[in-house]
Amino acid sequence: MEMQTLRLRAEANRLESPDSRQAIERAAAILRGGGTVALPTETVYGLGANALDPAAIAKIFAAKQRPGWDPLIVHVCDEAMLATVAAEIPDPARHLIAAFWPGPLTLLLPRSPAIPDAVTAGRPLVGLRMPAHPVALAVIRRAGVPIAAPSANRFGHTSPTTAQHVLDDLDGRIDAVLDAGPTAYGVESTVLDPNQSPMVAYRPGAITLEQIRAIAGPAEFYVETEALLAAPREAMPSPGVGLRHYAPNAKLILVDAVESDRDFVSRSEQIARGHCGERFGILLPTGWLGEGRRKPFDTIGDPPASPLPTFDWGDWSEPAQLAQRLFAGLRHLDSLGCTIVFCPVPPGDGIGAAIRDRLRKAASSPN
After folding, report:
1. What is the pLDDT of residues 257-269, one digit of tens each?
2. Contact criterion met (CB below 8 Å) for 49 and 60
3. Which pLDDT band holds residue 294 (cuts at 50, 70, 90)?
4. What is residue 182's three-state secondary structure?
5. CB 26 within 8 A of CB 6
6. CB contact at 8 A, 262 and 348
7. Using an 8 Å Cβ cutoff, are 331 and 165 in contact?
8. CATH class of 6-229
9. Domain boundaries in the chain?
10. Are 24 and 194 contacting, i.e. CB atoms less than 8 angstroms apart?
11. Is this structure's pTM higher than 0.70?
12. Which helix or strand (DSSP H or E) is residue 357 part of?
């Protein structure tokens, strides 16, 4: 299915410039014609296609090599478009839409007959959201159709937060990528089922469980079963469920309950001594291992592992920054040829829950 992938460019703060307007119109025309376009959203880049066209949807699954049991999220630009894809909107969902749309919140709602079975993996609920990225909204509005858009990467791989990440995975497999720079949040949307009480959050994201409860009442996280550790035999209950997600090429080793950078280094070195011959890398918070400090792993191996590849992950006290840079960091260390990446695990408050979810799934995925 090799094809030439166009790289279009648009600026979120200059939508009316000639170049942005041309790129947005070209992307919308491709989508109207049944093609595939990787679009920037505020979370990650998504691989878009007309959500009402079964043939276009099939192209998403083929390009990503995504199994049919994994449902897609559909993106809309306004409430009129929402009404064409949702058969019903319960009151809690209406309150959440008013509070958080446009934004990084996906709601599982009863699907309308217009939604093909492939979008929901045959299930009665469809994941819907209105992205906050002005370029994504402009493209959906110009296309005039709802856009199904899972993350624009190979299935199970690290999600893309730049257009180059998309091309690294899907160049020659999709019609176009619309480059609007790095994404703001860096982790996928929160996914919530508001049709039951308590409501169920299937995937944590930038909209936290605390925020949801404050607006719409009781909510709890979905507890994955052991059956989801392997490839399932039936459709997933929601996008983002299961453990085959977000994995770098390197083996990711998590160091939890970290009390200091010294604690992280000491515990990481203990683990590393059992992995001779590997090229280590670290997702390293800003300011850790300061000037003059001995670097980790520099006495391990023959010859010793030096210099040590690291990625400046961001301020440990700013979890939003860690989330935004997480996938970029994993991809960077992959590009340096690291075979094992060590990562401290931040606390689970707020968006920290989303970071921990992505790290757990990335570390659990087969490499």
Report:
1. 887 888 888 888 8
2. yes
3. low
4. coil
5. yes
6. no
7. yes
8. alpha beta
9. 6-229, 251-364
10. no
11. yes
12. helix 352-364
pLDDT of residue 302: 44
Whether the ω angle into residue 67 lies within 30 degrees of 0, i.e. cis, is no
The Cα 120–Cα 122 span in angstroms is 5
Q: How far apart, in whole angstroms, are the C-alpha atoms of residue 363 and residue 273?
A: 19
- Note whether 148 and 73 are within 8 A (CB): yes
Architecture of domain 251-364: 3-Layer(aba) Sandwich (3.40)
What are residue 354's phi and psi, to 5 degrees?
-70, -40
pLDDT of residue 3: 87
- For the stretch 195-225, pLDDT in tens is 999 999 999 999 999 999 999 999 999 987 6
Q: Are 36 and 49 in contact (CB under 8 A)?
A: yes
Contact between 342 and 348 under an 8 Å Cβ cutoff? The reply is no
Token couple for 108: 């599982």
- The helix (run of H) or strand (run of E) holding residue 155 is none
Question: pLDDT for 49-103, tens place per residue?
Answer: 999 999 999 999 999 998 888 899 999 999 999 999 999 999 999 999 999 999 9
Q: Residue 226 gets which letter from DSSP?
A: G
Question: Taken in order 209, 210, 213, 216, is the CA torsion positive or negative?
Answer: negative
